[in-house]
Amino acid sequence: MKKLQDVASIRMGYPFRSRIERDESGAIAVIQMKDIDDSDLLHLENAIRINLADFKDHHVVRKGDLVFRSRGKSNSVALVSVELGMAVLAAPMLLIRPDDVDVLPAYLHWYINLPITQMALAAQAEGTSVRMISKAALEALEIPIPNRQEQELIVRASEMAIAEQKLLEQITRERRRLADGVLLRYAMNA
């Protein structure tokens, strides 16, 4: 077991001092909590674009980074699976950047989003009305780190389980549509 801070750097998102003002010609996309869907996928199609002069390179979100929702009902993480160009993460979100070459970002994504890990993080939440996971609590999260080949197998098996679930949901919808069609035809001919 290793602490997350031993295999990744964890940074607070960019601390915007005021309301983020949209600039359609802006060079930088701003990643906010609303840009992560319920399946923990990142969507930047509607991200606010801005121009920002005073940011540093470590604020730029890169492929392989993880974006952690530190506040709200879900404290899950989204994996940045493609190059985003110029994009920054808005605080209070946290950026997790694996810095150990033996740790796959997709493995961390899988592990942090496990229900048991989410429960462990929820137990560390602070606040009464808006629950928050602190950077320190995230850094202290203990993670089993199998070898790289085993991580790849775990990630592939997880991806296959997700694909299977989507197919089962599609089959259920199609069965329902078929049953409704047959029953409607029966009702019309009765």
Q: How would you describe this structure to a colleague?
A:
The strands form 3 sheets. This protein has a 4-stranded antiparallel sheet with strand order 2-8-5-6. 24% of the residues are buried. It has 5 helices and 9 strands, in the order E-H-E-E-E-E-E-E-E-H-H-H-E-H. It has 190 residues and is α+β, with helices and mostly antiparallel strands. It is 36% helix and 16% strand. A hairpin with an 8-residue loop joins strand 5 and strand 6 (77-79).
* Strand residues, percent: 15-25%
Helix content: 25-40%
Number of strands: 9
Gyration radius, rounded: 20 Å
Query: Could you tell me the mean pLDDT?
Result: 90
Pairing-aware structural class of the strands and helices? alpha+beta
One letter per element, helices H and strands E, the order comes to EHEEEEEEEHHHEH
Taking strands numbered 1, 2, ... along the chain, how are they ordered across the largest sheet? 2-8-5-6
Unreliably modeled segments: none
N→C terminal distance: 66 Å
Spatial shape: globular
Q: Describe the sheet with the most strands.
A: 4 strands, antiparallel
Q: In DSSP terms, counting alpha (H) and pi (I) runs of 4 or more, how many helices? A: 5
